[in-house]
Write a structure and sequence with these properties.
Number of strands: 20
Strand order of the largest sheet: 6-7-8-3-9-10
Order of helices and strands: EEEHEEEHHHEHEHEEHHEEEEEEEEEE
Number of helices: 8
Structural class: alpha+beta
């Protein structure tokens, strides 16, 4: 059985400004399957929003082509693409009621009154705002306004819905609630969604696949678990979730493992693009073991606990190694009584399969992932 034809295809798409002096998107090749929830994830200035705006029709590609259901829409006006759009600032008409806001895109398409009334009621039910049709946007909370914005983008049954940081203006608890609401709507309708965010936890929660952008390019595109467990490079490892990074020298390899040394001690890791020379060993805090048993494929390093935090569902330790580097450890709160306190010695380590040896840097790469200190709870 063959895979379905891509619903959206970016064919070597580029976008430059200043007469070609600066590139926002570089040679983008990306397919989106019908009904897929694809998130464009990356830091500010990485090209993710420019990519979405080119698909929406608000920006024109400098090179390449954008195909929608096999047709080149690169020069097609935005209002003729049949795409719904949800912005961070809601973009609702303040002088119209909720029902009138939802009816507007249907009126533009010259639908009949009965059809409009049916679709507006259905859209309100979809976002669980039955009975709110008579209110003005100013009479709604931020979360309710964003639900209306989502409903308006879906009410005319678009080919796809594009969402540009739609939850960025909401507080944490409301943002998490609406993540699940948008995911539910996507599952129920089966509509194709392209979603832009810089929030990696949001991307991991909602997406079928994630395209990680960096300096105008896609570093890696895959399922959330693939990106989290098998990052393609140091940038993805640091941006999708949290990673500890320890500089080391690779001295050799065997059985698919590399042997590394640093002032912190001897380490084992899985090679990820480097088998000799300089490397960075990356391991996630939840994979770091406290007092690991001595075993053939387990790394053990000595250090001193410098910080300890209660973080709700876990206890977070920061362990300073002999090299001066700090390693974050996420430990079960059930073990809190047995965990070392600041100033006490500790042995940490990891299983070889849980650590990756990456090249330390490469041309065009972003800065290394943040240190555990930078990621400490406020």
């Amino acid at each position: 059985m063959t895979d379905p034809a891509p619903f959206v295809r970016f064919q070597r798409v580029g976008k430059t400004y200043d007469g070609g002096a600066s590139a926002a998107v570089r040679d983008l090749a990306l397919d989106v399957a019908p009904g897929e929830f694809l998130t464009l994830l990356g830091p500010s200035g990485s090209g993710k929003t420019t990519t979405l705006m080119m698909l929406a029709g608000f920006e024109t590609p400098s090179t390449g082509a954008i195909l929608l259901e096999g047709e080149d829409i690169s020069r097609r006006p935005a209002h003729k693409r049949g795409l719904g759009m949800v912005f961070q600032n809601y973009a609702l008409f303040p002088h119209m009621s909720v029902a009138q806001n939802l009816a507007f895109p249907l009126q533009v398409r010259r639908m009949g009154r009965a059809e409009i009334k049916t679709r507006v009621e259905k859209a309100l039910a979809m976002v669980r705002l039955e009975g709110f049709g008579h209110r003005r946007p100013a009479q709604l909370s931020g979360g309710q306004q964003q639900r209306v914005a989502v409903a308006r983008a879906l009410v005319f049954e678009p080919k796809a819905v594009l969402m540009d940081e739609p939850l960025g203006a909401l507080d944490k608890s409301l943002r998490e609630q609406l993540q699940y609401e948008i995911s539910r709507i996507h599952r129920e309708l089966g509509v194709t969604v392209l979603y832009v965010t810089h929030d990696q936890s949001e991307a991991l929660t909602m997406s079928d696949r994630i395209a990680v952008f960096n300096k105008g390019r896609v570093e890696q595109c895959g399922t959330p678990d693939a990106l989290y467990d098998q990052p393609a490079n140091l940038f993805v490892a640091g941006f999708v979730g949290e990673n500890n990074s320890i500089a080391a020298d690779i001295g050799g390899s065997d059985d698919g493992h590399v042997h590394a040394t640093s002032p912190a001690g001897r380490m084992l890791a899985t090679p990820a693009g480097v088998h000799a020379g300089k490397a960075v060993i990356a391991v996630r805090p939840e994979r770091v073991l406290l007092e690991p048993a001595e075993a053939p494929h387990v790394t053990r390093l000595a250090g001193t606990v410098s910080e300890r935090y209660f973080a709700g569902d876990h206890v977070r330790l920061v362990v300073k190694l002999a090299s001066g580097e700090e390693v974050a450890v996420k430990a079960s709160r059930l073990d809190a009584e047995r965990l070392p306190d600041p100033g006490e010695d500790a042995i940490i380590g990891w299983r070889t399969a849980d650590a990756h040896a990456f090249p330390p840097d490469r041309p065009g790469a972003a800065a290394a992932p943040p240190s555990p200190k930078e990621l400490e709870p406020a």
